[in-house]
Input
Amino acid sequence: MFDILSIIPGKKKTTMGGWHSFNAICCDKRGHKNDRRMRGGIKFVDSNNWTYNCFNCGYSCHFELGRSITKRVKDLLIWSGIDELQVQRWSLESLQNKDLLDFTKKFKKVKPINLQEKTLPDCELIDINNEKHKVFVDYLKKRSIDTNRNKFYVTPDDEGRNNNRVIIPFTYNNEIVGHTSRYLDDRKPKFITENQQIGYVFGYDCQKPEWQVCILVEGIFDALSIDGCALTHNNISPEQAQLLRQLNRQIIMVPDRDKPGLEICDTALNLGYSVSLPDWENDIKDVNDAVIRYGKVPTLLSILQNATTSKIKIEMRRKQIVKGL
Output
């Protein structure tokens, strides 16, 4: 779309209130004296949408990507020297972004996140020196998960499937707000999650203030193996997007390498995230597989090096991956 500030003629300055001020171009067109005191102003709502206001003659208008250009915005553009045919083209181009407008509104209508404290079942903190815990310790080592960096719990004396599970707590602000159990037998479901609350993002508490990047994945073991965050499913809810926004850093989405997982790329881009689809071997299905095969540091480097916001590059890589499935 068009860059409104480059269209407005004359010099400009930015105020403390976030306005880009300049001599208003509307006054003489509406029967007022020319503005010579920089009383015209543009203020951006976000990277796409803006408001114009003249503090001299009182003229105002608003542009919103996804809607047609209003008559008032059209007049402003024409007064700036843009011909009417070009304004019509921009108006049609804006309408082509209606899906993005609807998406943005959906993600703005989110209530504040309020995660309630929960309790774990009666369980034991995993102990590498406890013989009864050996099978669980070996399983975590096989998945390249460091038992010293995270807390895991087990119930080896329970009956049925519960004596063969690893309990992974969900924490937020250092309080337990739920948990999931990973069962080590061959039965399905492999994971049974209890008390997962709306908006929860696994691994959020582990993100350090000094980190500039958060790597976002689908699975819990993917997150554990690279100190990332996990959605625990293959979409990003508005509540999770709101929580992740509070980290105030670059988010890199690394989807699972299956058709449902790859569909998350579009949502991630619309939210302003980067997407990374490294050139891993075809049998690598997710981040944890990559860590097991290549190691943690090489996996992290490949994610960072392949992070992009280019829709064209992502679509090309997505097609290559789907073709190899």
The chain has three domains: 4-108, 117-167+180-191, 198-324. DSSP finds twelve helices and 15 strands in the chain.
